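DM from R.C. (forwarded with permission)

"hey, sorry to bug you on a friday — could you get me a structure for this? deadline for the figure draft is monday and I only need the backbone to look sensible"
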Amino acid sequence: MVKSILLVALSSLFLSLTACTETNIDSSASEAGTMTTEVVEAGTFAPVEKSATGQVVVRSENGRTYLEFSDDFRTSSGPDVHILLDIASMPPAAYANIASYIKLGPLESTQGTQRYEVPETIDIADYQSVVIWCEQFDVVFGYAPL
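My reply, with the result:
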């Protein structure tokens, strides 16, 4: 009799634990389902003064905007290389007009996949190209029209 009661109690406990686990799995699956992502723009890098190859995608994800460089992205190395958004589809030979671009930050790596967040205050539709630029020498390595 005691064994039967113990067996029933253990079975109930096991079923309760299983139900909790299933609920957690369903909950995380539904949270992942709410993520929205959309490709807004895309472009292919072209060299200017140095080498630059690969693709860039502008992605909107849950209300945030990101630049994503493809795994085949490659560019030359330099001392002070940055990522710019430019209002022109082809960047100028030199950046005398600071008002024509937004500096997103330093280049993380000269090759491979990388991702840069675009500040919320910037409307990506106002920009026509992504530029790889050496600030120290004011040299455009390459750009990708969007």
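R.C.: lifesaver. Residues 57 and 139 are 23 Å apart (CA to CA).
me: no worries. The longest helix spans residues 2-33.
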